[in-house]
Amino acid sequence: MNVLLSSEPTPPRPRRRRTLQLIGALLLLTLGGLVAIRAHRSAASPVTATKHEGAPELVTDKAKVDFGVVPFGKWIEATFEVQNAGRETLEFTESPYIEVVKGCCPPSPQLGKRSLKSGERTSLSVKFMMYRGMGGVHDFRVHLRTNDPARPDQTVQILSDWR
To answer: What dihedral do alpha carbons 129, 131, 133, 134 form, nearest 10°?
Structure first.
């Protein structure tokens, strides 16, 4: 019977040591490759870049305006700032229009400019009023159809509750 009296660990057998070295090397290569790929991606395409780099890009200052409870006969106006954050000219392919999700009597949206060069801004405004008989919750979605290849039909929301 062999008894090991030393507190030193027994060295791994040569074959086992070689296998462990290969596994360690593969793990390092894999980890190094993942780090290199991630670094390349973040350097090549910043977080704001899309797969349509340089293309026109429609950006609005807000996605929703909620007026809450509004008394009958009061005029209200929702205004959105619209910007071209892309490099190419942004074109509105049709006039903005309202989809009535709930309520009635959609107003006509007014757009400042139909064509925006890179960095240019314009405003979109929607002014309206409701009378008795037109009460309750109104949920309007204003569709903005453009040549933005990533999102050609964007919407902004206008909420109001007329009483």
So the answer is: 0
